[in-house]
Amino acid sequence: MTSLVEALRLAAWQEMERDPRVWVLGEDVARGGLFGQYRGFLDRFGPDRVVSTPISESVIMGAGLGAALVGTRPIIEMRIFDFVMCAMDELVNQIAKIRYMFGGQARPSLVVRMPHGNWRNSAAQHSQVLEAWFTHLPGVVVVAPSTPADAAGLLVAAIRSDDPVLFFDPKNLFGLEGEVPSVIEPIAFGTAARRRSGTSLTIVSWSALMPAVEEAAASLEARGITAEVLDLRSLWPWDEAAVLASAKRTGRLLVAHEAVQAGGFGAEIVARVAEAVPRIRVARCGMPRVPLPFSPPLEEAIKVTPAKIIAAAERLLAQ
Amino acid sequence: MTSLVEALRLAAWQEMERDPRVWVLGEDVARGGLFGQYRGFLDRFGPDRVVSTPISESVIMGAGLGAALVGTRPIIEMRIFDFVMCAMDELVNQIAKIRYMFGGQARPSLVVRMPHGNWRNSAAQHSQVLEAWFTHLPGVVVVAPSTPADAAGLLVAAIRSDDPVLFFDPKNLFGLEGEVPSVIEPIAFGTAARRRSGTSLTIVSWSALMPAVEEAAASLEARGITAEVLDLRSLWPWDEAAVLASAKRTGRLLVAHEAVQAGGFGAEIVARVAEAVPRIRVARCGMPRVPLPFSPPLEEAIKVTPAKIIAAAERLLAQ
Amino acid sequence: MPQTNAAHLRALHRSMCRIRAFEETALAAHKAGEIPGPLHVSIGQEGVAAGVCLNLRRDDRITSNHRGHGHALAKGAGVAGMMEELFGRAGGHCGGKGGSMHIADFSVGMLGANGVVAGGIPIAVGAAQGLKLLGQDSIAVCFFGDGAINRGPFLEGLNWAALYRLPVLFVCEDNQVAAFTRAQDVTAGPGVAARSESLGVPATTVDGNDVLAVDAATARLVAEVRGGAGPRLLQAMTYRHTGHTSTDPAAWRAADEVAAAKAGEPIARFEARLVAEGIATAAELAAVRAEAEAEMAQARQNALAAPWPDLATAYSDVLGS
Amino acid sequence: MPQTNAAHLRALHRSMCRIRAFEETALAAHKAGEIPGPLHVSIGQEGVAAGVCLNLRRDDRITSNHRGHGHALAKGAGVAGMMEELFGRAGGHCGGKGGSMHIADFSVGMLGANGVVAGGIPIAVGAAQGLKLLGQDSIAVCFFGDGAINRGPFLEGLNWAALYRLPVLFVCEDNQVAAFTRAQDVTAGPGVAARSESLGVPATTVDGNDVLAVDAATARLVAEVRGGAGPRLLQAMTYRHTGHTSTDPAAWRAADEVAAAKAGEPIARFEARLVAEGIATAAELAAVRAEAEAEMAQARQNALAAPWPDLATAYSDVLGS
Ligand SMILES: Cc1ncc(C[n+]2csc(CCOP(=O)(O)OP(=O)(O)O)c2C)c(N)n1
Ligand SMILES: Cc1ncc(C[n+]2csc(CCOP(=O)(O)OP(=O)(O)O)c2C)c(N)n1
Ligand SMILES: [Mg+2]
Ligand SMILES: [Mg+2]
Q1: How far is B225 from chain C (nearest CA, A)?
Q2: What ipTM is given for this predicted complex?
Q3: pTM for the structure as a whole
Q4: Distance between CA atoms of residues C94 and C112, nearest Å
Q5: By the CB < 8 Å criterion, does B301 face chain D?
Q6: pLDDT along chain A (319 residues), means of 10
Q7: Which residues of C touch A80 (CB under 8 A)?
Q8: Euclidean distance between CA atoms C320 and B82, whole angstroms
Q9: Using the 8-state DSSP alphabet, how is residue B147 labeled?
Q10: Could you say which of A48, A62, A100 has the minimum Cβ distance to residue D126?
Q11: Are B32 and B83 in contact (CB under 8 A)?
């Protein structure tokens, strides 16, 4: 068994062994990274390929882009997602648009790693889930794994991809254990994983909320309600076909995510399905539109929990 | 008749006359602003209240916040929305969260003005429509007017509001003429305006796309299809009651917006209505998920146009 | 030292002791699992917070960073409210919604710690601009670390403050480390003072572990800033005794480096001087330390027993009244 | 001047004339409604683009800003592809998807203009880091204006380049104005050279309207940068003859200020010298100007007649192959 963060370490290690053009830059990466996801990289790959940087997010992001434009394949480590807000011009106006603006002359082949989500009561500036923003941003791939094997396989795919890939590390699941193959094969973007089969309803989720969703599905099943549970794994491209097929089968779709419900990616999924499947019943379960509070009981009160997912499922089934 | 940009100038002028705590900061505002929206302000209000700044977006945004925390009421002029990407930490991590993080000790009463949208073939870095992002961000009000009178009334409301208000100036409509009262009264956020009554379907839109929507509705009406057209005017809060009521009446909802369709605010509206109104028929009309190209025929090809809105309405009615 | 300011000297000592005791108490409480979330303490850096803040008026404003307990305490923030905030309780200054990284007490002009490095710089600059616009003579003081001088807002903020001659004092608390990286390994050029001067902000460098040096420099700089001379920057050299967070052993630092630094720590150093110059006896000073420790132990006990926030507050303070 | 580099001198002259002719042609085409979107021309600043780029190799890279036509031309970008790009035609370097603000020609190392002030700085720094990682000896040159030195990425980028001793030459094209605001009104401290030095990047200031001064300084700096000495900054003082955009009259500038600047414009000044030193005759130089004007007129005609992009291309170059 391997932890999710170790699986990510092994995946990046494998790719840096495989391709000398791959390198990593970010704060403290030469010391192994904030979560140990680069432990041992400095000794193995040296300071030119494992670059501990100043606290200069604009250039961490923008230098990764520039280095990609001359043929290297950087892994841009942003430490914690919230700090990406300090590098949005480089990400949104430059990385996402450069290939298109230049008519295909340039292809920024890079990965931006952004450990995100609720985590150990770290409050409003260290817990944001804004993955939905980037599904609305042309020019980027959005990946959000939930298991060690998926995290490893999707990171390998991200590093090998010629497109800019935004990789949302689920930091709250870094300790999650699972099997990881000794040779990590890439996992195709846009392929959902079915975690459970069922007929009563379809539940779609991803990233750090998956354990809560599976827990909810299990207790629903104990009461004879079987949910088909889909883990999207990547949000752009997303596996619309799998979601539509399942929703048609069950007739009911619940999308649950860690992010704020209003304007979250659940809205896009529900909208697509509602457009395509007449008479489908749809529901969402996300956070209220408030920043994440520090105090544990307050955080617990607004976080999406198995109980809230179960309640949403029951409301949906009652319709 | 008054142009929309002049209406905005009059609204800001009225409020600066009314309240000495109101001031404006941004690039070239002392020269009247990029669009003349502050013409004459320097002579009337002086250089301490009309502050032309360096090209320092982080501090334009962050200084506005700091000044609000000591009791002034800044209008933060960002020149063109896309440059807000250079000030996202200050907006997303600071302005939107400070009141909550500090348990209500602080209330950043400020307005961030962001002329946005497609405009004169200014290409991918000067045309973005990312309003949807901020409906997903707790702690901010999102305003997007489409007429001179609404722009003026909503700007007055924004300046008087104790909450941080993100004001999306529709730069492509700055030349649009309309009546504006000599004394500009505030318009309440969250109240949609009905632009047309109809029974065949409901069309919801806002901001710079409204003229195209009204044109589409007119030609549909010429063929006996009457659309109820709602202009949301503000996206957060948004007039859910009006949209639900209209959608229930007509049984069909089309949301059209200038932004990319995937993950746009249309998804939230469609999702809410689909959750609340069983068997409702829904559709969206937005841009494909591509950056805005420079070449006029290419821009025209991907922009939302009256023809595309009409086609979407016909598909919806055919269901 | 003239006896006339003996009271001030004792106040500096007491302030440092209270910060030290607060931080050690918080560390112990965090290790005991009483405090959730990340915790950054300022043990060893007390001379900067005390030396700067005791030269400020209550209506002066400060912005701080992630390591902000000392700044808040020295500026006069209530201890009970601070400790309860760290514990996430209802009585915290932020009602438990902020925690250690978002300590704020607007009633004493403490405009907030910040979870984003350099995040407090634009805010302090704007506060100074607002105060000037309102015609008030209070000033803004902006605390940040050596790590913040590599972020863009440092340049934008200093240029801006100099341009508009704003009443702001920038204080770079230079402990020569940022998280797990030495400042020297990520900072090119001669450093923060030279950067500051190049942006039109006169800079002064002092030994931050000599509270009297910090006190004297701050007194002069605050007078200049309040007098309308424009912004100033103070670089205070100091050392972070602990790891970056309460859970970081900082094992990568050489033991003798840490030992040497602890030998020069600001409180003992100042006490030796106070005794030598007859301002206070060792016994008096020990009593101050004991009193501070008792105060913080009491605050910890209260916080532990204090009620959690009403769950309804999770939804308040977002928009509207 | 030694005859030996007469060819180089003529190349400098020809490059400046071609930039001037391109800009005047583009201005006329924009006024005639043939070019959509915003247009920023560099008339009066030709000495900087030519003096810098003629010291570069084809495999050196440059990043530019919104006023980038001259940089692209001097680096060797094809004129037909540039003019067609401004016209939004299929044959443009970017297939019409970028336009004036996003001119790029990767085939000659021109990594792109930029619609965001200072947007090219992090990219150039990263390009230099990538080139170093790949063990290549080409360098990166980063063009930006005086307005960019007040944005955070300037500090972050220069500190970074100095830290890793990257092969990058920063060129601040200092026309002393940003849009409608004078640099002196928004820039505190002694200016870009002092900021650069404070960040560990040695700086040189030259008269950017003296193409020989730019040429000589660049030759030296490029040799240092390519030799592994680390980054350098060149501040080239110049003047923007036109308004900020093609539609801006810049009426706020005193007429005599503009007249004085035009009197010292780089091309006539260089021609006088070439004639005085017997490098070329006035007739030869006039012929070069005429040839450049004819070349650009031809490019305009071609662009006007050139096909629009296939509408399918609006959807390509986003993701996937
Ligand atoms: C923009 C940003 N980048 C990274 C971090 C993560 N981080 C928190 S504190 C810190 C080190 C800061 O060092 P310094 O400013 O010197 O303060 P010190 O911890 O030494 O007191 C880092 C990198 C952050 N909070 N914000
Ligand atoms: C981040 C950002 N802020 C504002 C603008 C709007 N803008 C475009 S060019 C310009 C002036 C730039 O001046 P400078 O860098 O000196 O270049 P110059 O135009 O003088 O050649 C401004 C403010 C922008 N493009 N990007
Ligand atoms: Mg430090
Ligand atoms: Mg300029």
Answers
A1: 40
A2: 0.98
A3: 0.98
A4: 10
A5: yes
A6: 98 98 98 98 98 98 98 98 98 98 97 96 97 98 98 98 98 98 98 98 98 98 97 98 98 98 98 96 98 98 98 96
A7: none
A8: 28
A9: S
A10: A62
A11: no
